[in-house]
Amino acid sequence: MSIWKKSASVHALNRDSAKTAVSHLGIEITEIGDDYIVGRVPVDERTVQPFGLLHGGVSVVLAETLGSLGAFYASPEGHTAVGLDINANHLRAARSGWVTATAKPVHIGRTTHVWQIDMVNDEGQPTCTSRITMAILAPR
């Protein structure tokens, strides 16, 4: 059973991210399931730190992007979602390829959501795990 309360498509989510930090970093939404969103970020000159590793902050941007989209589309029509808190544990460096993340809800409440975002490299090895708490704001 789907958790989505608003209509969403991979095409629309990518289109709406044009000319934002998301598109600047090359982040792409690749899949929407009944209770999850998948996206990925390239490990390239836009996203690495000076030592050639994926910048930890970019992993957090990917996590916040997916968690925010999930919370927004799983909240009632007219409601918005804004981040309250995010954390990330960096588990393994990524030096090339793509890092792919899957966001799933841990809690969907009336005024808050908690989303878990797990990231892996091209070999399927964990690179980062993140959790975001979102405030769900009713229309004014």
Automatic annotation (TrEMBL):
Q: Which stretches are transmembrane?
A: none
Q: Which SUPFAM superfamilies match?
A: Thioesterase/thiol ester dehydrase-isomerase
Q: Which InterPro entries match?
A: HotDog_dom_sf, PAAI_dom, Thioestr_dom
What does the UniProt keyword field contain?
A: Hydrolase
Q: Which residues form the Thioesterase domain?
A: 51-126
Q: Which GO terms describe its cellular component?
A: cytosol
GO MF, one term, reads: 1,4-dihydroxy-2-naphthoyl-CoA thioesterase activity
NCBIfam families attached to this UniProt entry: unchar_dom_1 (TIGR00369)
State the similarity comment.
Belongs to the thioesterase PaaI family.
Name this polypeptide is given: Hotdog fold thioesterase
Q: What is the species listed in this Swiss-Prot or TrEMBL entry?
A: Comamonas antarctica
